[in-house]
Amino acid sequence: MAICELYRASRSGPFVLAGPCVIENREITLETARVLAGVADRLGLPLVFKSSFDKANRTAVTSFRGPGMDEGLAILAEVKRETGLPIVTDIHSPEQAARVAEVADVLQIPAFLCRQTDLLVAAAQTGRIVNIKKGQFLAPWDMKNAVEKVRASGNEQVWLTERGSTYGYNNLVVDMRSIPEMRKFDVPVIMDATHSVQLPGGLGGASGGQREYVPVLACAAVAAGADGVFLETHPDPDAALCDGPNSLPLDKIESLLVRLKAIWELNNG
């Protein structure tokens, strides 16, 4: 079954995009993927493994960005071979699309780049699923234009991801109305519950976060009709090289997904 059809199919819970924010090294990436594959299998939930080979929008020039495309794609390909999990990862320029599509099943468009026409068209032309994160500066109904850019390029496989809206300085807020609003475009809508608790630039040279609110937003989103959830996770978030303050500890993922599955079943029973 095509991944884009997962949300339409009969299933027992939301589909999940999960993994470390950035590829730190082969060992942590594979360890995390193995755990997530086991959780997905036990709960019967479709899961797409997420990690970035390059985080091009870090707060400071000295921030860790990742291993780069060559090494990063090689590690993601190994994850795919060993666990059987499909892969989602970010692209930041049109030139990256075709190369990344050789490994990734889903090409993710970062929120800051969600209006970049050339990037959306290049992603669409690979034939892969295009997951567009809603810009923190856009209303949910504004995302219709991004969806149409992909569809006009001959690709109907589009996902949209809510990740909060700018609310004053160094803060984000989530309006749960955005989920049913974006579902009006006949696309799966995903809740990024980890980036939505981010405090952008809140630590001065890096972003802060309030990971204790990740379960709150994830549960509320599934109750509001979200088709999937996006969760950044790490074996030791306090030692993570990127987005640790808003990442969920790996050993907390299964208990949260059990709760989300129960909520989903109440909505869809």
Tell me what the structure shows:
There is one protein chain. The protein has a single domain (3-268), classed as TIM Barrel (Alpha-Beta Barrel). The protein is built from eight helices and 13 strands. Helix 4 crosses helix 5 (143-152). It is of the alpha/beta class. The chain has helices at 26-43, 69-83, 97-101, 117-125, 143-152, 178-183, 214-223, 253-268, and strands at 15-19, 47-50, 87-90, 106-109, 129-133, 158-162, 165-166, 172-173, 189-192, 198-199, 208-209, 228-234, 248-249. The chain is globular. Strand 5, helix 5 (143-152) and strand 6 (158-162) form a beta-alpha-beta unit. An eight-stranded parallel beta barrel has the order 1-2-3-4-5-6-9-12, surrounded by five helices. It has a two-stranded antiparallel sheet with strand order 7-8. The longest helix has 18 residues, at 26-43.
Short précis:
It is an enzyme of class 2 (transferase). The protein is an alpha/beta fold.
Give keywords.
33% helix; cytoplasm; 8-stranded parallel beta barrel; two-stranded antiparallel ribbon; TIM Barrel; alpha/beta
